[in-house]
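INTERNAL AUDIT FORM
Audit reference: QA-55
Scope: verify that the stored structure record matches its stored sequence.
Auditor: D.O.
Record contents follow.
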Amino acid sequence: MPGVRAAGSSLLRRQKEIPFQERLLGGLEQGLLSAVAAVLAWVPTQALGLQEGFWAAITAIAVAQSEFNAARSTARDQFAGAAIGGTAAVLITTVVGPGIVRFVLALMIAISCCWVLKVASAARLGGITAAIIMLVPHQGSAGRMMLSRVGEVGWGVTMAILVTSLATLVRNRWRRRGGAFSD
């Protein structure tokens, strides 16, 4: 891991060397992308009366990026983690019931499944979703909560990808016309 640490240190050093104005503009762009994606994800959940629509907004913030490939990768991880973690939690809760030992089992299953299914980068999100389903008080069944959570994550992912795609399209057109947007 020394090579990874050195690369990380080098990246941090280079980021600090970026002029203030570029850092400010980059931060403002990321903030705007995140805010637009979050609002587009959250507002419809409120109109539908969903109690936990904030998960859609949180997911949109996590996924929205100024670079489309990074957003797509994060979107995949968010959705896969929610689906795998939610499924593990529902199966454990349904088959053997709630409890701390069962919670640990659900976490281990969710994280292991992510690795086995070649989406290890989604493992933490799988564990987080399992924890939400098993530990956060909710009305209705664990299955209903899982479907709601996966739906909210899916909606948040969709809005973030939409906003990121539109921002990329605008940026590319601006560059072709001689504008000064940068990555």
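Auditor finding: record pair retrieved intact. The first helix runs from residue 2 to 17.
Action required: none
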